[in-house]
Design goal:
The protein is an alpha/beta fold and about 425 residues long. It is about 40% helix and about 10% strand. The protein has 16 helices and ten strands. Strand 7 (about 220) and strand 8 (about 225-230) form a beta hairpin. The longest helix has 18 residues, at about 285-305. The chain is globular.
Length: about 425
């Protein structure tokens, strides 16, 4: 009787348990990021009550995160809008398809604007091989941001549907990774060569995060020039942890090769430029997420072995990583002929036809056939992973999936 009374009193004075805070982390990979939209479409259909109060995006993943964070509807509506933005996408929605001579001439001749705010007219192939003005216009229209400002983000913050949206870039002048965050109730962080900044997010932040080095032009934000956020970011999961995530869904665009597949050469003889560039692009856009996931799992094991009073504020962070069931780079070979002739010096001209895994081609393959295939693969991959996703989204204490508000903490590798 005394023991039962003690347990009742203990339960009365203990604070109520919190449901976990979910985060969505979207990596880059150029056109391959359409795969993420397919995954999210299935999740929105199978788990319509789900939402992610924290979202972070890097490179092309920033486009997806910004679409979701700026859309003021429920998760199914936002996911459908995202898929619609990818479906039927063509290369001319991304860059101005010019002749190879014009591209090279523009690279040598154009001058960057030195003063004044950045506009769509300024997003040109200055200091980059391609003119990405069409992408700026496309994002502006799809995100209903006529002046470039993502006004839906603040509305979602005010309504409690969103806790934070983060877009990650690289400062070309300082070499720092800069995470631009629009959110509430979070502290800025600073790590070696990694900082965070409060921001009212805009299309320019997204454009900067997606600016493939040398190929897409850098974007000016305030008085500095920024490019792809994946360049130096070794811990892509860290921003979500800093913002208070307890459970992270990370959607990668990298196929998990088996050992036998990894040992199989993609080329015979001297590697063409496309093979080398593809390896470099994978290391920039994709590989860091896999490495960070391994580190997170190791840290989780160590933290769980420590009593709470010795964890120094660290906490376990659950991670579910979803990856494609097929090699999206190899798949790009089936659609190489869809690249416009004037654009092929960047693909076949660099030897994409000489490698079995043309990852470089897949980054630039913004063509409807390939995009639609990726959307379909992502949808069915998520469908096959339904049970894993359901277990991950099963919130504690009977709370609605994804509705929790966790307490910001840290982990050792932040």
């Amino acid at each position: 009787m005394v023991q039962q009374l003690f347990q009742k009193l203990k339960g009365f004075f203990q604070p109520p348990s919190q449901s976990p805070t979910y985060a969505l982390v979207l990596s880059g990979g150029g056109a391959r990021s359409a795969y993420q939209a397919g995954v999210l479409r299935y999740m929105s259909e199978a788990f319509p009550g789900t939402y992610f109060p924290i979202m972070t995006g890097i490179s092309a993943g920033a486009i997806n995160a910004a679409h979701l964070g700026n859309h003021t509807g429920a998760f199914p509506e936002a996911a459908a809008h995202l898929v619609d933005s990818w479906a039927g996408l063509e290369l001319e929605n991304i860059v101005e398809v010019e002749s190879g001579f014009s591209m090279l001439w523009g690279l040598l001749q154009q001058q960057a604007p030195e003063e004044g705010p950045l506009t769509s007219a300024d997003v040109r192939h200055t200091h980059g091989l391609l003119n990405t003005t069409p992408l700026w216009n496309y994002l502006r229209d799809r995100m209903e941001a006529p002046d470039g400002k993502l006004t839906g983000v603040q509305e979602n913050l005010d309504d409690g549907r969103l806790q934070a949206l983060a877009v990650i870039t690289t400062n070309y002048a300082t070499g720092q990774t800069v995470t631009w965050v629009q959110g509430k109730d979070f502290d800025l962080w600073e790590r070696p060569d990694r900082i965070s900044v409060h921001a009212d997010l805009s299309v320019n932040h997204v454009m900067a995060s997606t600016a493939i080095p040398l190929v897409f032009p850098a974007v000016r934000i305030e008085n500095e020039w920024y490019g792809d956020g994946s360049i130096r970011l070794s811990a892509p999961l860290a921003p979500a942890v800093h913002l208070g995530a307890d459970r992270i869904l990370g959607i990668s665009n990298r196929y998990p090769r088996s050992r036998s597949e990894a040992d199989e050469p993609a080329v015979q003889g001297y590697p063409p430029a496309a093979q080398i560039i593809g390896i470099l692009m994978n290391s920039v856009f994709i590989d860091a997420l896999d490495q960070d996931a391994v580190t997170l799992n190791r840290v989780n094991k160590l933290v769980k072995e420590l009593p709470p009073q010795k964890r120094h504020g660290m906490r376990p962070v659950d991670l579910l990583q979803l990856r494609p069931s097929v090699d999206l780079g190899r798949l790009a070979q089936d659609y190489e002929k869809e690249i416009p002739n004037a654009f092929r010096f960047l693909t076949t001209g660099l030897g994409t036809m000489k490698t079995e895994s043309p990852d470089w081609l897949s980054v630039l393959l913004f063509e409807s056939g390939y995009i639609d295939r990726l959307l379909d693969i992502g949808y069915h991959d998520a469908r096959r992973q339904h049970d894993r996703i359901a277990r991950f989204l099963a919130a504690e204490s009977g709370h609605e999936v994804g509705s929790g508000r966790g307490t910001p903490g840290k982990r050792a590798e932040e």
